[in-house]
Amino acid sequence: MAVSIGLFYASTTGNTEQIADQIAAQLPERIRLHDIAVEGVSAMVEYTCLILGIPTWDFGELQEDWDEHWDALAALDLGGKRVALFGLGDQLGYGEWFQDAMGLLAQQVRSAGAEVVVPWPIEGYSFEASRALTADGRHFVGLALDEDGQHGETEERLQAWLPQVLAAFDA
Ligand SMILES: Cc1cc2nc3c(=O)[nH]c(=O)nc-3n(C[C@H](O)[C@H](O)[C@H](O)COP(=O)(O)O)c2cc1C
C-alpha cells in the first residue's frame, strides 16, 4: 500500500490554505492536512513523505505561523524523509524577494535531515531575485505559485507537479 503523506501549511490571507485544500482533494485517501497555526509541526515525524506549503511575507520573510514554529522545526529529526515544497509569492509586487520563504524552508528541513524533492523550472516566471533557487539557478526548490499575478497558471502547474511528487515519494 502507498504510504500516507502529511501536508503541512500555514496561510495568512488564505491563498496557501486554498492550494493545500486543492492538493488534498486530489488524493483524499493519501494526504492528511495539518494547519501549523493550529497543530504546530511535531506531527511531521509521523510521516515518511511530506508536502510543505509556505507563503513569503514582508519582503522575503517567513509567514508568521511558520516563523513561530521555526525553532521547533529545526529540532525535529527528519532523517530519511522526502519533502516536496510549494510556495506562494507575488513576482510582480515583490520580485526582489520572490518565494524567499520557500528557499528558507528548504534549508531548514535539509538541516533537519530531510531530502527535498522535485525542483521546479523557473521558465514562465519573471522576477529579479529569489532565495528559493537551486544551485544551478534554473529551478526553484519546489513549486512556485503566484495567486496574485498568475492565478490562471495554478491549476496547470498543480496538475504537472503532483504526479512528479508522487513519483518521487514512491521511488
Ligand atoms: C505585505 C505583503 C508582503 C509580501 N511579501 C512578499 C515577498 O517578500 N515575496 C513574495 O514572493 N511574495 C510576497 N507577498 C505575496 C504573498 O506571498 C502572496 O500574496 C501569498 O499568496 C499570500 O499567501 P497566504 O494568503 O497564504 O498568506 C507579500 C504580500 C503582502 C501583502
Name some characteristics of this structure.
171 residues, alpha/beta, Rossmann fold, seven-stranded mixed beta sheet, two-stranded antiparallel ribbon, 9 strands, binds flavin mononucleotide
User: Rounded to an integer, what's the Rg over CA atoms?
Assistant: 14 Å
User: What is the assigned CATH homologous superfamily?
Assistant: Flavodoxin domain
Query: Could you state the order of secondary-structure elements as H and E?
Result: EHEHEEHHEHEEEEH
| Mean of all residue-level pLDDT scores | 97
Low-confidence stretches: none
Question: Can you tell me the number of structural domains?
Answer: 1
**The CATH C-level class name:** Alpha Beta
**Distance linking N and C termini:** 13 Å
- Subunit organisation of the chains: single chain
Largest sheet: 7 strands, mixed
In CATH, the architecture is: 3-Layer(aba) Sandwich
Shape: globular
What is the CATH topology descriptor? Rossmann fold
Tally the beta strands. 9
Proportion of β residues?
A: 15-25%
Q: Which hetero compounds are present in the coordinates?
A: flavin mononucleotide
Fraction of residues in H or I helices = 25-40%
Structural class, judged by helices and strands? alpha/beta
> How many individual helices?
6
Protein name: Flavodoxin
Pfam family, one: Flavodoxin_1
Family: Belongs to the flavodoxin family.
Function: Low-potential electron donor to a number of redox enzymes.
